[in-house]
Amino acid sequence: MNTHPYLRAYLAGIFIPTLVLPIFLTVFIVVRIVLKVPVPIEQAIIFPMAVVPMLFGLWNMLWLGSHACTRLPIGLHGALLPLVLMPLGATTASCLGVLVLGTHGATWFGACEIPYVLIVPCFLAALAGYYLVWKYIVGFLNRVVGIA
Q: β-strands 112-115, 105-108: how paired?
């Protein structure tokens, strides 16, 4: 099974977000329809559902292509992905008017203000979460498809 290693890397990379994002979508729909939350949260899930699986796959392909030169462990490589996703998401949300960055915090949809003091621990938790997902799940999937 040595043919098409980048295709196998892409498929191993998209597995987790493809599995998890529909669960998030279900939770968002329940919160929006059942709990009647007035924030248009469906706008916040469409972009990640389109972009995140693709970026996971491309990031895994990048790891496969650069691993011979860098010897970077897959967990550390995966932990770097939020450093790409967070600024990309914040920039896109700011350009679309969904996110407004203020002096004390970020305001989502003009309704939910999150202080910067809470954003930093959430970002660090995301780094740790991505490290664990990439080290144990994506690394396992890479071994299963024969590219690790």
A: antiparallel
